[in-house]
Design a protein that fits this description.
heterotrimer, A alpha+beta, B alpha/beta, C alpha/beta, A: alpha+beta, Ubiquitin-like (UB roll), 3 domains, 6 helices, B: Ubiquitin-like (UB roll)
């Protein structure tokens, strides 16, 4: 494998020719924001946050798919890129219903972090306040499409890693949404293995485990009666998981 | 069948045709179907039979006759004499007066010396309206598959590629990439399997060039694809055509079946070692599937969403194999280039944009329909001579080329030559060939809004700038068109347009802002006069008092 | 003359104002440096003219908020969106997925303990707008203070910057939603 040299933000680097700009940047701790990208999944170049400038090329290239060539001059953090990244996050914020204060991932959300990273102090376009579907029919998980940024990580992890391909995209344009099976309720899905991979890769609170929200918190105290009865009467009662 | 057999078949068919005194060709393309050509055909058939002309007069459904705005159209050969707005009653008169007595029905006669016909140069459309769209024999009699025979018997694949490169032919789908160069890349690709794909997912509003070619002369496209297959080393072709074109699909199916039967497609074509199959893939009508990477995914049965390039399809296309993808009109140019030579072709048009371009004329002009003109023809000549100018009492304002991906060209650029480079200098594109003419009654803000609504609806939703950006651009245009937009809104509109253009993943998003940017460039005043004055807040100020903070920051 | 500061409470929960009070002992310093001319925590009935800085909590969700927003903008030189509801709509805007009729049905009929009835006249009760909007979609806003609620430190920083004659540019640590 040939080694090539090029520059990123004025510094010279060398790398294998099969590495993407993003991989190289990560190796060298050069910050490039991403959203749809996740190590381990295929790259789709969809979120456009990782766009970089390449000298001599009019077109911006996504760092997650573009590979440097010998002598390439790459810039990752120009004013133009910063402006576009901010606008992309702005568009995302306007597209869904992102009420951080009442969200299960508040404080651990990649969209929230992106907003901080790009310095999004307010959104200039009108909020669209869509009315998207929430599906809580699955026994363990919930999908709240109001918080979905359509990064398709769930679609990819389910197809590429779990091999179940429960998720895909329905509709198009601004009406796109994540759908399960043939647009059926999650709880009725026969392909879902309930592995929870989609929940773990979701960058926002769109996919989450049940029991995580304030309203759902309940205390299971059935264990107490179970243990006490067992100790005192040497009886193993069947009420172990019943709620008191 | 060998090439000799093919020529013999052509001779037989020519003989058969000369036996008729008259050939009556009625346009059977979608435009004339919608204006009622089926009834006209029935009347003609009945009148010919009743008048005893069944033996001497042939009635043929042909491809688009061009003057679509005046259909149904009927052409009588010899002459030829063309009739417009033919109703069943007129059809009866054509038989009674023209066929029976040799006296054309003058009041419905089209002047074929009119610039609409006389100023055209027909290569792609040369057989349109002269042959039966469903007869391979007629096609062969008119020279069909002769070029395929030539490459299979006389030319090596690299010679074919070289010939196409020398012709200067560029992609007719809009971007104008060198066809020969693309073929060369696919030819040089090392793979056990290669594919040829025809992009017939024509989707621009008002555009029907490809549909007309497929309906009127499908063999032209099949022949071009087969030659391409031979040149690049592919044995499988796909035509991706949208389900909204049922007649084109029908005619393609018929044509493929006929060609296979004669050994012009399939195994050992013309008894050579060359095998080439063509299959149809029917698209569900998503505009984005006209984008090549989305189209290829759709051909493979997956959701039509574009992916970043590189790799280009010529390196990694269908199932990861080198894939040549060209537009219908590009393939339709191949056979004539092979038959008549690259020098002949490159002599037409301009040095950098050779050959001709088919345009679908629509909008505020007298003649709407399908035309083919040499590249480099001044826009003025298309609009005022061929299209006959705008209707009485109105004035030309702008022409929109390239549909939702293109831009408008105002009056001051009427003398612009229509070629790839010149159109780009004024912020428009050649596009696939839609040309919509607007007169002084049109609002350019509404035009921009119309196209943006189209792009918003057709965005696949994969990348954020296109999915959400087009929505907000549309909302801003709507707000401005209602007189509720502010100067800030106008500024944001421009900013979003630039951002969506530069950051979108595929051509759809990258070009979606073009109609807006182009109308702002030439008709900014139409926007600014719709903007509402700033709201008055305290002391005649407009709020947002950053400047006065320091003055007030005293303790 | 000390800068004239106002705070206002539109469609929000008053949490931002609670957080304002959480500035604790710094309030004493603040009281020396500003004149608080209007606030839900000060008993002033009319929004006064000639205000230097207005902190506005809450989204614009009803006709009263809408009118108040314009009054504030007409009378204040520098308007700050105070908290997530003013900046993004936040919880107040969660109702936007429903129609005003559905909201009223839920609030005044389904959840009523006594006398379920829909409001019929709006002389004393404000009428809901079709949707709740962030403040800057209604009037021009000069600076944004995030958080649900913003922390006392964030508020102190913003106010201090303003008093020092600077447009507050929140350091990254102070940019936080939720």
């Amino acid at each position: 494998m040939a080694i090539i040299t090029f520059s990123i933000d004025g510094e010279h680097y060398s790398a294998r020719e099969d590495q993407t700009i993003l991989e190289i940047a990560r190796e060298h701790k050069i910050p490039i924001p991403t959203l749809c990208h996740l190590d381990g999944l295929s790259t789709v170049g969809a979120c456009r946050l990782c766009l970089v400038e390449i000298e001599g090329s009019a077109k911006l290239q996504p760092a997650c798919t573009a590979k440097p060539v010998e002598g390439m001059v790459i810039r990752t953090n120009t004013d133009r890129l910063k402006k576009y990244r901010r606008t992309i996050v702005e568009l995302l914020a306007s597209e869904g219903n992102h009420q951080c204060a009442v969200c299960v991932v508040n404080g651990h959300c990649e969209l929230q972090n992106l907003a901080y990273e790009v310095g999004l102090d307010h959104v200039r376009v009108p909020y669209l306040f869509p009315s998207k579907r929430l599906d809580a029919t699955h026994k363990d998980f919930v999908i709240d499409r109001n918080r979905c940024v359509l990064c398709t990580r769930c679609v990819r992890v389910c197809h590429e890693v779990e091999g179940a391909h429960v998720w895909d995209i329905g509709g198009r344009g601004i009406n796109c949404e994540i759908i399960g099976d043939m647009n059926q309720p999650w709880g009725e899905s026969e392909s879902c293995t309930s592995c929870g991979k989609c929940v773990r890769v979701c960058p926002t609170g769109a996919l989450f485990e049940k029991g995580a929200t304030v309203g759902e918190m309940h205390k299971e105290r059935g264990f107490l009666k179970y243990i006490v009865t067992a100790r005192n009467k040497q009886q193993w009662i069947a009420t172990a998981h019943e709620e008191e | 069948m060998t090439l000799e057999d093919l020529r013999e078949l052509a001779g037989h068919e020519q003989d058969r045709q000369t036996k008729f005194r008259f050939r009556i060709l009625y346009c059977s393309s979608a435009g004339c179907v919608s204006s009622g050509c089926d009834d006209v055909k029935k009347t003609l058939r009945a009148a010919l039979d009743a008048g005893g002309f069944a033996e001497t007069c042939e009635l043929i459904g042909t491809g688009c006759l061009g003057l679509c705005g005046e259909g149904p159209l009927v052409l009588v050969q010899p002459g030829p004499v063309m009739y417009r707005h033919v109703t069943p009653a007129i059809a009866q008169r054509i038989v009674d007066e023209h066929i029976a007595q040799g006296k054309p029905v003058e009041e419905h006669r089209v002047n074929l010396a009119d610039p609409f016909f006389a100023a055209q140069t027909r290569i792609v459309l040369e057989r349109m309206g002269t042959i039966n769209a469903e007869s391979i024999d007629e096609c062969i009699a008119a020279g069909g598959y002769e070029a395929l025979g030539k490459v299979l018997t006389e030319m090596a694949p690299e010679e074919v590629v070289a010939e196409i490169r020398k012709s200067g032919l560029r992609g007719r789908g809009g971007a104008g990439y060198s066809t020969g160069l693309k073929w060369d890349i696919v030819r040089k690709g090392k793979a056990d399997q290669k594919y040829v794909v025809c992009n017939a997912d024509e989707g621009d509003p008002g555009a029907f060039m490809d549909r007309s070619v497929l309906e009127g002369d499908p063999h032209r496209v099949l022949e071009g694809m087969a030659i391409a297959g031979y040149a690049v080393g592919a044995n499988q072709g796909f035509i991706y055509v949208r389900a909204e074109y049922p007649l084109a699909i029908d005619r393609l199916r018929t044509a493929i079946r006929q060609a296979e039967k004669l050994g012009l497609l399939g195994n050992r074509i013309l008894e050579s070692q060359f095998n080439f199959r063509i299959d149809l893939r029917i698209g569900a009508g998503a505009f984005v599937c006209g984008e090549e990477t989305a189209l290829l995914r759709s051909v493979m049965g997956r959701r039509g969403r574009p992916r970043p390039r590189p790799p280009y399809p010529s390196e990694s296309g269908l199932w990861g194999k080198p894939t040549l993808i060209n537009n219908v009109e590009t393939f339709a140019n191949i056979a004539p280039i092979i038959a008549k030579g690259s020098a002949w072709f490159s002599g037409i048009g301009t040095p950098k944009s050779t050959g001709t371009k088919v345009f679908a004329l629509a909008g505020n002009v007298r003649n709407t329909g399908l035309i083919e003109v040499p590249m480099g023809i001044p826009l003025r000549r298309i609009i005022f001579d061929i299209a006959g100018g705008t209707p009485e009492g109105t004035e030309f304002k702008a022409a929109q080329t390239g549909g939702p991906s293109g831009g408008c060209i105002p009056k001051e650029h009427l003398d612009l030559p229509v070629d790839y480079e010149s159109l780009a200098t004024v912020g428009s594109i050649m596009g696939s060939g839609g040309m919509i003419v607007m007169d002084s009654t049109a609002s350019m803000v509404d035009v921009a809004k119309y196209f943006m609504e189209f792009c918003m609806d057709e965005s696949c939703g994969k990348c954020i700038p296109c999915r959400v950006g087009t929505k907000h651009i549309y909302l801003l245009l709507d707000k401005i068109s209602r007189g509720e937009g502010s100067a800030e809104d106008f500024g944001l509109l421009k900013e979003l347009c630039t951002m969506v253009r530069e950051t979108s993943l595929c051509g759809l998003g990258q070009s979606a802002p073009n109609p807006v940017l182009s109308t702002i460039r030439f008709f900014q005043e139409e926007y600014t006069r719709l903007l509402k004055p700033p709201t008055e807040f305290a002391d005649g100020g407009t709020g947002g008092a950053h400047a006065s903070v320091s003055a007030e920051g005293k303790e | 003359m000390k800068p004239r500061v106002a705070t206002a409470w539109l469609g929000g929960c008053s949490g931002c104002h609670m957080s304002f009070l959480d500035m604790d002992e710094r309030l004493i310093e603040l009281a020396d440096r500003i004149e608080l001319v209007y606030s839900p925590i000060a008993d002033v009935k009319e929004f006064p003219p000639n205000v230097d800085v207005a902190l506005v909590e809450g989204a614009v969700t009803n006709s009263e908020n809408h009118e108040m927003a314009h009054i504030i903008r007409r009378n204040a030189r520098f308007v700050v969106s105070f908290g997530d509801c003013a900046t993004t709509g936040n919880v107040t805007a969660m109702r936007n997925r429903f129609t005003s009729e559905q909201i009223q049905q839920r609030a005044y009929i389904e959840l009523a303990d006594l006398n379920p009835q829909l409001p019929s006249e709006y002389t004393t009760l404000a009428q809901l707008l079709t949707t709740a909007r962030p403040l800057h979609e209604v009037i021009p806003v000069d600076a944004y203070l995030h958080g649900c609620p913003p922390t006392a430190d964030q508020i102190w920083f913003t106010v201090s910057e303003l008093l020092a004659g600077r447009v507050p540019v929140l350091p990254p640590a102070y940019l936080r939603y939720g």
